[in-house]
Amino acid sequence: MKQIKLFLLFGLILLNFNVFSQNKKTYKVNTVAFYNVENLFSTQDDEFTVYHDRTPRGEGYYSKEIYQAKLKNLAKVISEIGKDVTGTTPAIVGFCEIENRQVLEDLVNQEPLLSSDYGIIHFHSPDRRGIDVALIYKKALFIPTNSQSRELELYRDNDPNQRIYTRDQLVVSGILDGDQVHFMVNHWPSRSGGEARSRPNRIKAAELSKKIIDSLHSIDPYAKIVNMGDFNDDPTNESINKVLKAKSDREDVKIMELYNPMSDMYKRGLGTLAWRDGWNLFDQTIISAGLLGKDYSTYQFYKAGIYNPPYLANPRGRYKGYPYRAFADGGFTGGYSDHFPVYALLIKEAQ
Length: 351
Description:
Layout: H1 2-23, E1 27-40, H2 64-80, H3 83-86, E2 92-98, H4 101-108, H5 111-114, E3 118-122, E4 132-138, E5 142-150, E6 154-155, E7 163-164, E8 169-176, E9 179-187, H6 195-219, E10 225-230, H7 238-243, E11 246-247, E12 258-259, H8 263-267, E13 273-275, E14 278-280, E15 283-288, E16 300-306, E17 327-328, E18 331-332, E19 342-349
Parallel strand pairs: 1-2, 9-10, 11-12
Antiparallel strand pairs: 1-19, 2-4, 3-4, 5-8, 6-7, 8-9, 10-15, 12-15, 13-14, 16-19, 17-18
């Protein structure tokens, strides 16, 4: 975490030097964030949820007080992502592991987020756990022009009678402060049953994402795309590295290709979730070449990061330093999520 802060501070010093000492220009900076919020379910039954353990039907039923405590915790985190640079809340936030639109409405109406006046884009997915992906956006900054939920069809052993129900992929296009930008929100199939056994499902998910990205590039080779999510794979895994072909070196990225700014973080041992004393970086923001230009009259990618202040880490015990998850041992811990959020900063010249 200290390395990230020092790197960010160094980058800001350079940015401010270039802006104020050389070019005499000022820049707008906006945050695009992604957060796996660890089973954000309401206390009510939902007709689209086949089963979950946060209602009276399940073993992990929690009270309205616990639900409100989790909402309050998540709102605090979201309100602070990128704030040390932008001075404000994120412009765009993608989510996974939310139950329905209602939990997002309850979330954006929490005090730390209320004044940001967030809009919500959400579609129900057929996921068997009843969890979806979604996106919120500042209405004053972003105008959605198109949104769609792209279904990921998976079958066990390629048997059409054995459908695996999983999350759709959300695609939202719109105008961000004058610029057309496309946002994709993902929650790829888990590693349940083992990484190798479940790998083909994530390959299929990557193929769908690549198809969506290619279609956007076919319309505009310079399309500005932010592909974010919990991919359940690291930057070096086949789905990211070979199917999406997301490159780790910004200078190697050609038109209609992708850059993964999280790759270097992963090489340095950083991660967004911990498992068996090791770190994974499943949560990522992947950037299209259209955001890597040097014409700052439109939005360009500045940098990415993992938001992991000390209070988001487990303070004690066997899992000290791991993300401070909200639920463990059958109850509410007072924590936040079993994942750290990630973010990308986009900048453009102020007019």
